[in-house]
Design a protein that fits this description.
With 307 residues, this protein is of the alpha+beta class. The chain contains 5 helices and 15 strands. It has 2 domains: 57 residues; 245 residues, no CATH class. The longest helix is centred in the N-terminal third of the chain and has 56 residues.
Length: 307
């Protein structure tokens, strides 16, 4: 009888020990989980604080975006009785970036690229974004070598000397549609000793943001459009869209992409650019059907710190 009682007590004792060990292990696991959560929370708070601090500086901003919309066409074949056209709606885009820090190293661009291009709300057409030669701004051209597929990398050039930056910037800002733009910029640059001139046919930019980023949005909206009334003059502008009975609501597009900047301190910044392709102004009663349509966006877009 005593042996049975002893075995029973031993069994209970072992069960209690096992339960105690299991509870101890569970307690240790819970403590470890809570500790790790606390550590992650502190790390996240520190990261948010760092990002908030850097974002508060607003080192880089987009101060203005200038848009010029029109239309054009390529002629597939000309017969005696008709034209065979591929019709494009295009919008040229000039983006003006400012560096706002008093710290020269923070203001100096070391790396710049564009990616994550998206086309939303578009019902008709085949859209493409190109790098645009500044001197070709407002002129339609399809240069396959300039198509942006996934990412457009810019070559960064040393800035112009102090005092010349504003001069070049003013020339670009005030003459972006002028036929004399190229000569005026060249004359300005030629007067500056030691400047490495930009080749505007390539994606290049000065490290102090003195020239705008220029892109072209192009949308093939109708292929093989046959024009039988060849006695009526064919004007290669936005009126083509009206002539081809292209409803503007069908080619409305919300274009977006990201601009990434890394400065000389290796601080990375990113801004998401969102552009509704301008086709008409219901208030003014004007539209791209009139030939061309322009819009200027002056709402400031801030670059945020990219960890």
């Amino acid at each position: 009888m005593k042996k049975k009682q002893h075995k029973k007590n031993t069994k209970y004792y072992i069960i209690k020990v096992v339960m105690f060990i299991l509870l101890a292990i569970l307690l240790i696991v819970l403590i470890k989980i809570n500790y790790n959560d606390a550590q992650r929370k502190v790390a996240l708070e520190n990261t948010i604080a760092d990002m908030t601090s850097l974002n508060a500086k607003q080192t880089f901003t987009i101060d203005k975006i200038y848009l010029y919309s029109s239309a054009n066409a390529t002629n597939n074949e000309t017969k005696k009785s008709m034209w065979d056209l591929n019709i494009y709606q295009y919008t040229d885009i000039a983006i003006y970036i400012s560096a706002n820090s008093s710290n020269k190293e923070q203001n100096t661009i070391k790396e710049l690229y564009i990616d994550n291009i998206k086309f939303d709300s578009l019902n008709t057409g085949t859209p493409i974004v190109y790098y645009k030669n500044l001197f070709e701004f407002g002129k339609f051209n399809l240069i396959n070598d300039n198509i942006i597929t996934e990412r457009l990398n810019y070559q960064i050039l040393p800035p112009v000397k102090t005092g010349a930056n504003n001069e070049i910037s003013n020339v670009v800002n005030s003459n972006i549609e002028s036929s004399s733009l190229e000569q005026e910029v060249e004359n300005t640059e030629a007067s500056i000793v030691g400047i490495e001139k930009i080749d505007y046919s390539k994606p290049q930019i000065y490290s102090d943001c003195t020239t705008p980023i220029t892109l072209e949005y192009s949308n093939l909206v109708k292929s093989n459009y046959l024009v039988s009334n060849i006695d009526s003059p064919l004007i290669y502008d936005g009126s083509l869209l009206k002539r081809a009975s292209i409803d503007l609501s069908s080619i409305t597009c919300d274009l977006s992409f990201k601009i990434h900047i890394k400065n000389s301190l290796d601080e990375s910044h990113v801004a998401t650019v969102k552009i509704s392709i301008p086709l008409k102004d219901d208030v003014a009663g004007t539209s791209i059907y009139d030939g061309s349509f322009t819009k200027e966006i002056t709402t400031v877009t801030n670059f945020s710190y990219e960890k």
